[in-house]
Amino acid sequence: MNNPLLELKEISYKNKNNFTLNKVSLRIKSGEKIALLGKSGAGKTTLISILNGTLRPNKGSVKLFNTEFDKLNLYQKSKISTIWQDLRLIEDLSAEQNVNCGLLGKRSFLYAFKNLLNISSFKKAHQYMQVCNLKKSIFSKNISKISGGQKQRVAIARSLIQESDILLADEPFNNLDPKLASNIKNLLLITKNKNKIKVPRTTLISLHRLDLLDGFNRIIGMKNGEILFDLEKTKLKKFHLNKIY
Amino acid sequence: MNKLKLNPSSITFLPILVCIPLAYELFINFHIGGIELFKEFIISAINPKINNEIIFTLVKRLNETIFIAFSSWLISITFGVIFGILSSEIFYKILNLPIFLKRFLNLFLTFIRSIHEIIWGLILMQIYGINFSIGIIAICIPYVAINAKVFSEQIENINLKTIESIKEINGIKSSTLITLLWSPVIETFKNFGLYRLECAIRSTAVLGLFGVGGIGRSIFLSFQTLNFRELWTYLWGLAFLIIISKELLKKINLSKTSRKFLTSFVIALFCISLFSLSFFVYFIFNKNAMPFNSINNLLILNFNFISYEFLKLVLETIVLCLLSTGIAISFPPIFILILNNKIGITITRIISFLFRLIPPPVLILILLMFNDPSISLAAITLGLHNAAITSKLLLANLHNQDNKQYIAMKSLGVAKRSSWLFGLFIKQANSYLAYCAYRSDIIIRETAILGVIGSVGLGWQLQESLSSFAWEEVMVILFVYSSIAIIGELINGKIKSNLT
């Protein structure tokens, strides 16, 4: 199928008099595993925020399933999930309640209410939390009482439980040790897994650590709000990286 | 010479300067006419009257107080949450509703909040006569708006990024809204809502002085007959009720709350809102309201009666408020600084408890035993009552604070008072001043209580106009009162935002 899943056309985004994105175009097809590289301030977070609809571009168009983003219904929009760099968990809720929040897009108001009262089922949340290497002892702990690495995995579990088609992740391995980072990366990139959980077929992950590039099939390099290169993983050379770092 | 530089600590102590004009006026108005009565009042504190009859009356009055205070607390918290959500920006952002609705609601809430429950009580009593419902409704009106403001402020503090992340999950709007609002609402209920019960008990006692039932009625009658032993029985009864209610509420540990409790709490909130709405509608339309001929009376503002004397009363109200605020800010830190040892702190706690316990109208009547009526007397009454409240908060915060810096300074040989000032208080000064700014909003409203009992300010004129059913004048006074309170609130809001 040639139709892209997600398409950006000539996107520009201006923030406080500076262009943080300048005429960016991008087509993401189903099944692609994309790594987004670039220094801090290159525009990676802004690009991800535009892709998931959190930010509206000043110029250009964003299309998901060939439909303008503004015309999508809630169900269509829920096909995208995001892991934020700053996690954005709800501090006063427990880890399992936070993970259950990922199901808000598919459940009723009553479910949201029961989750807050702590009387909803946590079976599915626990399954995803275990897959993300979270121990049972922290399931019911308040978010403010767990470590940075554990919070990171809670945020990952919350986005995975959405069972979306596209996963956008903004530096999701920051707080994890090398072994755990590698395991979680494999979990996010390998669709068929022994854990029998559904993982998004299409992923776009922004990265700082080049040792985690294995498993991606497309690499995009950004600098000063522009895409400097967009190529297959096998074609990536050192001079490409020199351009952006 | 270096320029004088003010910081939060020095700003806390500076208002003590209000004592210079106050001391002068109190000194020239001093008399010893009621000194014997005052002695009797003090001695009666440790020798209250106890017999079967008085215990029976005390229990009956306490029951009435509990009923009025608890009902008004429950209703005002429930509607406080509802209006707090409706007056927060997040609600309109998530549901994509026009923001002007929020502005209308905020304007309405600001108006009803700016008028003290005593004034609402007096107005309702003039319209509907004396009964229990008046007490509940009079407390609920401003309390709903005050609670709504606090809940809405806490809701507005939700991190914008958290809102984005939950919105991005693309759940239905009501699910997104409840998920975002739940934690701030529950936290505010724990930190602020439970404390409001104590406030409701105090307000019920003060309303009782003006005719609504409860312990306040007995306090007032025993004071009128100068039966101080009986008066202290009722005051200690009130103290007992406040302490018991506080201890009981402390036992409710919401962080370890069972699912059953939370579920029943939410169901209770729902039932209360339905019941109180239907009761309110029934009350408005079914009670005898003979002196209140038509709703039109409340829509006419007659500014013709504004004279030089009226403007003088307005000025008196503002001066009274400034003087009282000065006392409320500066007295607690100075007192704690001077009496900076265990015994001194215990004495400060006892004195502040007594000044919180004795309702301001009774306090001013006691002070009138050896002083002529004046703005200074009213200011010292209101100031001491509020200083007792600010000192409670300051002592609690100082107690909970990490005292490493204080110990380090003391170990370096710095004097105890200097160590307290620079090692402990300096860290609290900002938040203490911010709380005092909030407290001064309340002081503005409380000036009405002293005015109404015939002391100073606009409250006196309000009582006169109410007694003669001059509704057009009443509406002008309410308008002026409300304007002073709103301007004060805006100024205090600026101060608070600069401090925090």
Structure overview:
- The complex is a heterodimer of chains A (245) and B (500).
- Chain A is an alpha/beta fold.
- Chain A has 2 domains: 1-79 and 165-245, Rossmann fold, CATH 3.40.50.300; 90-163, no CATH class.
- Chain A has 8 helices and 10 strands.
- Chain A has helices spanning 44-51, 74-77, 95-101, 109-116, 123-131, 148-160, 178-189, 238-244; strands at 6-15, 18-28, 33-37, 59-64, 67-68, 80-83, 166-170, 202-207, 218-223, 226-232.
- Chain A has a 6-stranded mixed β-sheet, sandwiched between helices. A 4-stranded antiparallel β-sheet of chain A has the order 2-1-4-5, with helices on one face.
- In chain A, strand 1 (6-15) and strand 2 form a beta hairpin.
- Chain A is globular.
- Chain A starts with 5 loop residues before the first strand and ends with a helix.
- Chain B is mainly α and 500 residues long.
- Chain B has 2 domains: 7-34 and 301-500, MetI-like fold, CATH 1.10.3720; 48-292, MetI-like fold (Orthogonal Bundle), CATH 1.10.3720.
- Chain B is 78% helix and 0% strand.
- Chain B contains 22 helices and no strands.
- Chain B has helices at 8-13, 19-28, 35-45, 52-86, 89-95, 100-114, 117-128, 132-156, 160-167, 173-193, 195-209, 215-224, 228-251, 259-286, 308-338, 342-357, 360-367, 375-400, 404-411, 416-452, 458-467, 471-499.
- In chain B, helix 11 runs antiparallel to helix 13 (228-251).
- The longest helix of chain B has 37 residues, at 416-452.
- Chain B is globular and about 75 Å long.
- The A-B interface holds A 52-54, 74-75, 77-78, 80-82, 84, 86, 88-93, 101-102, 104-109, 111-113, 115-119, 162 and B 159, 161-162, 164-172, 174-176, 178-180, 182-184, 186-187, 259, 262-263, 266.
